[in-house]
Amino acid sequence: MGIITLEKSNNLFWLGRYTERVHTTLKFYLKGTDKMIDSDPGYYAVYCQKVGITNIYGSRENFVRTYPYDETDPNSIISNLNRAYDNAIVMRDYIGTETMAYIQLAIDDIKHAEKSGSPLADLMLVIDHLLAFWGCVNDIIDDEQIRNIIKLGKGIERLDLYLSLDKSEFEIKKEFRRMKQFLSKSHMHYDSDTLFTIEKMLNEEGFNYLNVRSLVRGLIQQ
Amino acid sequence: MDGLIKHSKTINKLLSRYGVKFGIYKNGEFKEQLFPFDPIPRIIDYNEFSNLEKGLIQRVQVLNCFLADVYGKKQIIKDGVIPEEFIYSAKGFLPPCDGVFPQKGIYSHISGIDLVQAKDNNWYVLEDNLRVPSGASYPMIARELQRRSAPETFMEHRIIDNRNYADLLKEVMDYVNTGGINVILSPGRYNAAFFEHSYLAEKTGAVLTTGNDIVCENDKVFYIDYDGNKQRIGAVYRRISDEFLDPMTFNEESLIGIPHLFEAYKKGNVALLNAPGNGVADDKGIYYFVPKMIRYYLGEDSILQNAPTYLPYYKKDMKYVLDNFDNLVIKDVAEAGGYGVIFGSSLSKDKKADFIDLLKNEPRRFIAQEVIDFYDLDILDEKGERVPRKADLRAFVLTDGKTKVWPSGLTRFSRNPDSFIVNSSQGGGFKDTWVLSR
Predict the structure, then answer these.
(1) d(CA A213, CA A161)
(2) What chain B residue is nearest to A104 in terms of C-alpha separation?
(3) What local confidence, expressed as pLDDT, does residue B337 receive?
(4) Do B80 and B100 belong together in one domain?
């Protein structure tokens, strides 16, 4: 394809971010619902705080029943998936119909899970199809820059979420290294001073997650 | 055929998987919905298609001649074949296009001709679409998915492969390209035909754009990349209407157009497919004159028939329309998409009287046509049973150095048993169109 405009790079970047947001929050939701079964019924409030969304749910039951599926809630998992779709549909000519199909299938899965007798088990299909989407990104998209912009979006989002979810320092550093390799390959504009500062902070033991997260959020210049 | 019927659900599921949808606005809200697909194809045998092909080529060639004439010497008006008020009052006649000649003299590169087959086996042209006809992508992708779902059906029948539409389209774009990349200009994600825009971009290798990344400088058109580098554009397959194409020349309130694009086109620095101003030739009032154009420009009889049409503009025709009002279908020439179509028999006494007043006041605004008793095609209803429904065929004719008919087409059908309206925006579905190779 060869020509990537500002608007298209933005779509690709956010396609990566939203697919990752759905992937990680869904995995966290599945773990959280397990906790809420018996050991910590009020865990949904912690979930909301960690993911950075307003707790509008009021009860464990309401959270479990609506958070993944409510299209009127901008923070729901399906709303984020719809945003991934919105960014994918305008990039069909770059990513291909075959790749795009996996976003559509993930949307179908989540809608099916809402009506299913075993929604938690069925939601796992969403993760399967997102993994297939990323497989297609690697396998089908020929243009290296397009692949790298999507992966950069995915990497930034994962790092941001992992910092919010208090993942281990080891995990944070690993995700930072992975994200960093796509920075230069994507040819997107980023703040090299900010990158330097993040690297320096991560090398210090007991670094402050909130400070690193703020810097990660300002790394890409859009 | 049984294989296709058996796998109907699978095919529709695959169409959903690949996002074969169209957008529709209901109560001011945009919704995407699947374009319902029926697995029973329309089948056109080789000889029948050959005749149809000749007629379509003749028609599109003559419409291109007409456009060159009407924006050039205007001989057809001078010779009194078409009254000049029909040209100048046509909404699609664009004065800025007067005296402007497109690349290689082609006005209608992609033409969508809507036909029906009557019970006497004759094909009748219902309308010509020479601006931004849509729909080819649907049978193209449906064929791909049908072959995957029921390969045995395609082993048993000799069906011409229709999956070359994108190649034909690319050839047309390349033929008129003035040097640079091909782009498909779409109004954007919330346009009814966005699936088609994005799918054709993918399949032709053209760049899909909403125009935000395009600038005109020194009467040339450029695509701007992420770093601000400019790449020359040689051909724009535009899927936005004439009036929104360039706010400097047409509707100044257009936010989706590209300022100064028309100047670059006028200077021959970029090709626009289809040419702006084509609306004068697919005006429903001008339609009446197409057989006369064929005689005038080619000295031939029209191979394809128009539906019998009356122009209330002519006193004799007005009398006929008033005398036979209940048997006719009246069309507002300014409307499209199945809107503005009134069946005389469907109006109450009061509404009929009001409508006749309007007709008398604005005779140029309407045409009247005999209701053609056309073939119904079977579709599968929700219970999986075959039921007959009204259906038309949009044939696609592409023009580069030659005029070619795509050996397929979009067959649209009404899902409502009492309706003649087949448009997707009004709940219609689509079928594949098979052309047999022998």
Answers:
(1) 9
(2) B17
(3) 65
(4) yes
DSSP symbol at A190: B
Statement to judge: residues B156 and B244 lie in one domain:
yes
Which token pair is A41?
């019924």
Please check whether residues B230 and B379 belong to one and the same domain. yes
Residue B352, domain extent: 308-370
Question: Is the pTM of the predicted complex or chain greater than 0.80?
Answer: yes
Give which of A168, A213, A161 is closest to A21, Cα–Cα.
Answer: A161
How many CB atoms neighbour CB A210 within 10 A? 9
Interface A-B: count of C-beta contacts within 8 A? 66
Indicate the helix (H) or strand (E) that contains B321. Answer: helix B315-323
Q: Read off the pLDDT of residues A25-70 as tens digits, 9 standing for 90 and up.
A: 999 999 999 999 988 999 999 999 999 999 999 999 999 999 999 9
Whether residue B100 has pLDDT greater than 60: yes
Query: Contact, B248 vs B263, CB < 8 A?
Result: yes
Please name the residues in contact with A143: beta carbons below 8 A apart, sequence gap of 6 or more.
A1, A2, A94
How would DSSP label each residue in B208-245?
A: EE-STTEEEETTEEEEE-TTS-EEEEEEEEE-S-HHHH
Q: Can you give the pLDDT at residue B340? A: 80
What local confidence, expressed as pLDDT, does residue A191 receive?
95
Q: Which residues of A touch B (CB under 8 A)?
A: 1, 3-9, 86, 89-90, 92-93, 96-97, 100-101, 104-105, 108, 187-188
**Angle value at C-alpha B379, between B374 and B385, nearest 5 degrees:** 130
B223: nearest CB among A3, A104, A105: A3
Q: How far is A32 from chain B (nearest CA, A)?
A: 30
Task: Kindly report the CATH number assigned to the domain that includes residue B357.
Answer: 3.30.1490.270
Q: Which residues of B touch A100 (CB under 8 A)?
A: 18-19
Average pLDDT across chain B, whole number: 93
Segment A178-194, tens digit of pLDDT: 999 999 899 999 999 99
d(CA B3, CA B153): 6
- CB A153, CB A17: distance < 8 Å: yes
pLDDT, residue A2, reads: 60
Domains of chain B: total: 2
- Residue ranges per structural domain of chain A: 6-217
Supply the pLDDT for residue B374.
83
**Per-residue pLDDT reduced to its tens digit, B251-307:** 888 888 999 999 999 999 999 999 999 999 999 899 999 999 999 999 999 999 999
Residues B57, B141 within the same domain: yes
